[in-house]
Amino acid sequence: MELSATTLFFLSLISLMILVSLLGRKPTPPSSKKRRPPGPRCFPFIGSLLHLLTSKPQVALRDLAKKHGPVMYLRLGQVDAVVVSSPAAAQEVLRDKDITFASRPSVLVGEIFGCGNLDIAFAPYGAYWRTLRKLCTVELLSERKVRQFASVRDNETMSLVKQVRASGRGGELVNLGRMLVSCTSAITAETTFGEDCGAELREQFLSAIDLVLKISGGLCVGDLFPCLWFVDVITGLKHRLWRTRLQLDAVFDKIIAESEARREEKKKTTMGKIGDDDLLSVLLRIKDEGELDFPIGTTNIKAIVTDLFTAGTETTSSAAEWTMSELMRSPEAMAKAQAEVRRVFHNKNPQDHESNLGELSYTRMVIKEALRLHPVVPLLLPRLCRETCDVGGFEVTEGSRVIVNAWAVARYPEYWHDAEEFRPERFSDGSTVDYKGTQFEYLPFGSGRRMCPGVSYGLAVLELVVARLLYYFDWSLPVGTQPDELDMDMVVGATARRKNQLHLVALPYNYKVPTMETRS
User: Fold this and answer.
1) Is residue 235 part of a domain?
2) pTM tops 0.70
3) At CB < 8 A and 24+ separation, what contacts does 120-123 make?
4) Is residue 1's pLDDT more than 50?
5) 392 backbone dihedrals φ, ψ, rounded to 5°
């Protein structure tokens, strides 16, 4: 049988890839080889990549760690990687040697959508990144800023309640997963661009961001085989990434131009003094002042805002969806959480709900437990080893990528009793485990210098969303589905989300959802 020209081309390409990879591979010095962490067998050319060809890489890595140990070596194409899967090893990387592992490897997605790694997530460690970190903690995501946007969270979560109520009339199934994505996207859009940003522009931007999230979860050959960077060009991946980036840029330019025009108009009517009503306004003010050690321009702003969206929408909606999923599988926990929310919120003005969240001790335990079982970023973003050092008694060489399996750490049997079970009570008042990243058995937001800077922002949205869903509705599974039969399959891309969005029946609780008139 004759082979087609296309088949011959790809066979030739694969042969070339194997040859280049083998020729470009450097022999490992004997002294280093003795102390390298143990790991699974490495195959020619691909190394250990076969172990990660799964929708649940964190599970595969946890199972490998049971055999090879909590500090494990993997050869990912031409890249040396070390995976840590225990709280003790995570502590070494994230606290004891945090400065050594404070940088990020450069990857194609970060270079394109981070505008040359000018974003917060992928910027290499150094003075520029420290400037961004300070900008986040002081200006963009501070406790003061989180409080400032309380009205946005209030309005959008009440809109979510109304949407659920309308969609669930007559016992119809509600696609809660889709509604949660819409709600968190709306919150992020308004806090970032302000309420004056046109609805059409906002929708265009959210559509572009959705495309970014979908396309950025794929495999870039050049990230794992640097000498084969041209493969991403041949397959069209690089072209698709750049096309999406240009679409995003086009919308960005319009939004920024509108925002700057509004700022100029406000200067005329307020004698030159204007407030920062949204995060984009903050960034534009800082750009104009030019007082940072590293002055930021429009390109920097685009990179930072893209990070805010990609990190603040799908992560929060996925966390809320997993929380509701676990409650549906645990009717006792659902009943207890609903009773608490309805007791605390009873006869309260809905606008005061957020100020009462501190009284929801059990509901907060539910959210903590859901984040333990389902961290939305199960494999923390990889860190780059800046100088050769030891972790767990093994040598990690300079240039290696270090991956913390936060999912495995949060199920480590020496720290967690019945680790696979959903038990919110494990976070009772006597528990000292929190979100600060100082207890290394629990890292839903990471730890150390590279810890997620938006913890307070994300939790404020997550807690209010869950509390209002529990308060305003009684939830049930589709007819014929038992709690232990609920589909919990996941897929890991940019985040770990449900493979199939959560569909539930929502029966309104006997409390009138307030109209805009009664709330004002």
Assistant:
1) yes
2) yes
3) 120/304, 120/307, 120/453, 121/307, 121/311, 121/381, 122/381
4) no
5) 65, 25
Helices 237-269/298-312 angle, 10° precision: 110
Grade residue 510 by pLDDT with cuts at 50, 70 and 90: confident
Distance (Å, whole) CA 165 – CA 61? 42
pLDDT tens-digit readout, 147-165 = 999 999 999 999 999 999 9
Cβ–Cβ under 8 Å, residues 87 and 409 = yes
Residue 228 pLDDT grade (very low, low, confident, very high; cuts 50, 70, 90): confident
- Residue 431: which CATH number? 1.10.630.10
Distance, in Å, from the CA atom of 11 to the CA atom of 467, rounded to the nearest integer, reads 56
Residue 368 near residue 357 (C-beta atoms within 8 A): no
Give the closest residue to 252 by CA, choosing from 288, 208, 214: 208
The reply to whether 65 falls in a domain is no
Domain count for the chain, please give it.
1
Distances (CA, A) of 9 to 56, 77, 107, 233, 234: 32, 22, 27, 15, 11
Q: Is residue 400 part of a domain?
A: no
pLDDT > 90 in the chain, percent: 70
Residue ranges making up the domain that contains 481: 136-372+419-519
Structural contact between residues 412 and 441, judged by C-beta atoms closer than 8 angstroms: yes
- Does the pLDDT value for residue 367 go beyond 80? yes
Count of CB atoms within 10 A of residue 1's CB?
2
Structure tokens given for 403 = 């991956």
Q: Is residue 142 included in any domain, yes or no?
A: yes
- Other CB atoms within 10 A of residue 460 CB: 21
Bridge partners (DSSP) of residue 364 are none
What does the DSSP assignment read for 334-392? HHHHHHHHHHHHTT--GGGTGGGGGG-HHHHHHHHHHHHH--SSSBPPPEE--S-EEET
Percentage with pLDDT > 70 across the chain: 90
**Contact criterion met (CB below 8 Å) for 454 and 344:** no
